Amino acid sequence: MSSEAVILLETVNFAAEKHRNQRRKDAEQTPYINHPIGVARILSHEGGITDIEVLQAALLHDTVEDTDTSIGELQAIFGQTVSRIVQEVTDDKALPKHERKRQQVEHAPHASHQAKLVKLADKLYNLRDLNRCTPTGWPAERVQEYFVWAAQVVRGLRGTNPALERQLEELFKQRGVEL
Ligand SMILES: Nc1nc2c(ncn2[C@@H]2O[C@H](COP(=O)(O)OP(=O)(O)O)[C@@H](OP(=O)(O)OP(=O)(O)O)[C@H]2O)c(=O)[nH]1
Ligand SMILES: [Mn+2]
C-alpha cells in the first residue's frame, strides 16, 4: 500500500475517534464523520485535488472547532502545514455567532489557496446537505439565510477551483441567490 494511503487512513481514523459521539443536525442523526469524509471526497473526486495535506486538512477541518482537539495536537501528529490549514478554517467559538459569520466573509479572500479549497468543499457539502434535508428546528428562512451568507463567503473564495465553483454557482442559482 502507498504511504499516502496509510497517512489518509491514520487521518480519517483520528477524525472518526474525535467525532465519535457527534451527530449531524438532521432527523436521522447521521454520524458527524460523514461530513468531513464527504468534504475530502468532494476535493478529490470533484475538485481533482491530489495534495494530500489538503485532503488531510479536510478530514480534520472540524476537529478543533467541534471537539476537544487542539491545534498543537494536530501539529504534533500531522505537521505544520495540515495544522495551519485547519487553523485557517476554524471559527473562534468564543465570539458570538453573528461575529463568527461576519469574520468568515471578511477572512475568506485572505486565506491560503489550500484553506480556500477546504472552505469551498465545506460549503458545497453543507449546501447540498441543506437541499437533502432540513436540520431539526430550522425554518425555511434560516435555510435561505444560510445560502445567502454562504454566497458571501464563496464570493471571497473565487478563482480557486473552477469545478467546485461551478457546482456552488448552480446551487445558488437554484435558490435565486446572487453570487
Ligand atoms: N447543512 C447541515 N449542516 C449541519 C448539519 N449538522 C451539522 N451541521 C453543521 O452546522 C453548521 C451550520 O449551522 P449554523 O447554525 O450556521 O452554524 P453553527 O453550527 O456554527 O451554529 C455547519 O458547520 P461547519 O461545517 O463548521 O461550516 P460553517 O457553516 O460554519 O461554515 C455544518 O457542518 C446538517 O444536518 N445539515
Ligand atoms: Mn464543516
TrEMBL record:
Name of the protein in its database record: Guanosine-3',5'-bis(diphosphate) 3'-pyrophosphohydrolase MESH1
GO molecular function: guanosine-3',5'-bis(diphosphate) 3'-diphosphatase activity; metal ion binding
CDD domains documented for this protein: HDc (cd00077)
Protein's organism: Oncorhynchus mykiss
Membership in a protein family: Belongs to the MESH1 family.
Function: ppGpp hydrolyzing enzyme involved in starvation response.
Domain HD as annotated: residue spans: 32-127
Reactions it catalyzes: guanosine 3',5'-bis(diphosphate) + H2O = GDP + diphosphate + H(+)
Source lineage: Eukaryota, Metazoa, Chordata, Craniata, Vertebrata
Cofactor(s) named in the record: Mn(2+)
Record EC number: 3.1.7.2
Gene3D superfamilies assigned to the protein according to its UniProt record, in alphabetical order: Hypothetical protein af1432
UniProt KW keywords: Hydrolase, Manganese, Metal-binding
